[in-house]
Amino acid sequence: MDQETFNSLLSRRGGLQHPWSSVAPAPEGTISFGAGVPDPETLPLEQLDEAARAVIAEEGIASLQYGSSMGDIALREQIAERVTRLHGVETPPEHVVITTGASQALDIVCATFIDPGDVVITENPAFTGSLWTFRAHGARLMPVSSGANGLDIDELEQTLAELRAAGDRPKLIYLTPDYQNPTGVQMPTMLRRRLVELAANAGCLVVEDAAYAEVGIDGIDTPSLLSLAPEQTVQVGTFSKVIGPGLRIGWLTGSPPAVEHAAANRTDMGTSVTLSRMLARFLANDELDSHINRVREVYRRKRVAFSLAARENLGPLARWTNPAGGFFFWLEAAEGVDVSRLWELAREERVSFAPGHRFFVEDEPPMRYMRFAFSEASIDNINEGLRRLGRAVERLQDESQRRLF
Asked: Is the bond preceding 182 in cis, omega lying within 30 degrees of 0?
């Protein structure tokens, strides 16, 4: 089959290309600050091993069978209890759907509510994977700036007014209010209250991405959007950041009719019963809270190490604010710094980061930002990686000087 014939078979979605698909693999030995991966030492391997053995030994063949489209009831009960306790929203298991990570949860939400051309308001910048999911469903993305306090509420109000004046309205408002990816910021309570009020007046759902909500470092207590507006919010969550990304277990909960319709729109026969029951046993042992406290302390030390090493090796060439939680530092390069060229030189020095332009909605995004994930690398590698970045910065400065003469 020739290429033209093959291309004629592709759907609109099948013809799309992920914006990172053309990025070549990093050289061997590269210290990566690119991906939001948890520290390997924080993953509860022994406890999960015990839970897995118990599931197979005690439940046998039953643990290897199909489950329901809602997901395994044992895990739904555990998540429902946790959601009720953490958010103060009475959540029965019937209001929880188990998914293959938060990414599938968002995909199911889009399949349930988004037709091609429908408006989705998203914070900007935002997680590239989420933007990709919305685009794959044909959504028309309306970006609202995300700054030091998260999504800009005044800009959101103006955007909603402009849509209303044009006879249009959004289906969804998507954001990560806690330790946002990529910026790491946390939205204050007052702004959260305004957001759900604006969404209610606009007649749209709020999609709360809670992927990093339990990876707080500073212990700032803010109410979830789910707790502020449970009938109007769909929350998507995941265990990938605190227990293990290889489990690929997430969930969605919130507005009961939204959850009911979302469960009916999945096409994969549900998630793994085996992994779900293993995770349910881990949660039933009441070890998650103490585990999360240990995880937070690990990231607290890494955050300090990264900030000190960045200050030493980058000097005045970038500025940033220490994140209150999550996995990321969001750096803004000084005027005149070519971030694209710095990324190339950094890879040659065997250190990598995520160029910030990948996280923006615009076709011509700002080019002055960089995202560094400090979660996976050891403290030794954080220090060494930023030393390598410092060498790349020196090379960039030398190139700039040569261009002047």
From this structure: yes
DSSP per-residue letters across 272-323: -HHHHHHHHHHHHTT-HHHHHHHHHHHHHHHHHHHHHHHHHHHGGGEE----
Q: Quick check: 18 pLDDT over 80?
A: no
Q: Give bridge partners of residue 330 from the DSSP assignment.
A: 371
pLDDT at 222 over 80: yes
The maximal CA–CA distance of the chain, rounded, in angstroms, is 75
Total count of residues recorded for the chain: 405
State the alpha helices, DSSP H only, in 142-266.
153-165, 189-202, 225-228, 256-264
Report the distance separating Cα 213 and Cα 237, nearest Å: 9
121, 162 in Cβ contact below 8 A?
A: no
- Of the CA atoms within 13 Å of residue 108, those in its CB half-sphere come to 33
Q: Quick one: pLDDT at residue 1?
A: 82
Residue of 237, 382, 183 lying closest to 298 (CA atoms): 382
Average pLDDT, the chain: 93
Other beta carbons within 10 angstroms of residue 384's beta carbon come to 16
Report CA Rg, the chain: 22
**How many angstroms from the chain centroid is the CA of residue 349?**
28
> Is residue 69 classed exposed, middle or buried when 0-12, 13-18 and 19+ CB atoms within 10 A define those classes?
middle
Q: With 80 as the cut, is the pLDDT of residue 400 above it?
A: no
Distance CA 73, CA 94 (A): 9
Of 219-223, 340-344, 361-365, least confident by mean pLDDT is 219-223
Phi, psi torsion values for 192, nearest 5 degrees? -65, -40
What pLDDT, in 10s, does the model give residues 326-353?
999 999 999 989 999 999 999 999 999 9
pLDDT at site 28: 87
CA distance 313 to 392: 10
* Distance (Å, whole) CA 304 – CA 278: 35
The stretch 130-156 carries a mean pLDDT of 96
CA 213 to chain centre: 10
Pairing outcome for strands 31-32 and 351-352: parallel
Q: What pLDDT band is residue 79 in, cutting at 50, 70 and 90?
A: very high
d(CA 371, CA 356): 6
